[in-house]
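Researcher: Here's the sequence for the chain we discussed earlier.
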Amino acid sequence: MRRTVMAGLALSLLAGACSSDEPPASTGPTATSQIVAVPATSDLFAGDPQRVSFGLVRNDNKLISFGDAEVTFSFVGTAAEPTEPQPGPEATATFVPTYGTPDRNGGPAVTSPNEGRGVYQADDVTFDQPGFWTAEVTVVVQGMGTQTAEATVPVLDAPQIPAPGDRAKPTENLTLDSKGVPQGAIDSRAATTGEIPDPELHEWTIARAIAEGRPALVLFATPVFCVSRFCGPVTDMVQELAARYGDRAVFIHVEIWKDYQEQVLNEAATEWLQTPSGDLTEPWLYLIGDDGVILDRWASMWSESDVEAALDELPRMTN
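Model: Thanks. This is the structure I predict for it:
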């Protein structure tokens, strides 16, 4: 049976995946800090600018939300050859709330998951070598003052799943026209509602979009069974984008599970997201150009404005 790992914010805690030769993903609160930083981005690799996200959690399981945080990365070697920390990139990480969270002015604050669930995202972070990198996250929190937490992230020499610049896999994902499969395998929400709530996201296969030279925004997510609880909101976001950008791209949702009870994954999900170790992380969002090349990808949680900007750069389709 394939092993599936869901990465993201589970209730008020973030769950990540690491193998036995990796260091812990986060450090606990210290005498000078009351927060934990937990990575929310997987498949980081050296050489190209990427988005790197963290969830910030208090020791009472409440969240730190809104505003900005400062992140400083340091290279600490490999499992075989650890080294003294070597200074690396620095970045400002901006809070990205789950889709539908009301706007809120002001800086970082303590919230419950219902008030402000999301991640702090640093853009254009480039790691110059593979290995382990420590991120020191500093945030000034209302009522708590300056808090600092560290998390260690593995950085590979190359991505393990499709990345920008790669040719998209011509996948025959399940659609409304698929025969002999339960509706829940097309969209997990159908298993509880009896119908697929967003049919416009289940009309195209990735293979057809590539063959017809159409850009595609492809979401891999399981709205019902998502550990992170990000999948439902991001699916709603993509559905809303489809209503506004239907002249720029086709929009596709790929359900992760063919049969959740039997732990059977959809082949389309494994074809794109399963790593050589057998792990699979979700949700992921991919933007594929009309030439079949991946233009961008987003992991775990993403800003609607980021995706809008990428769609705005696409020419309008003529038919």
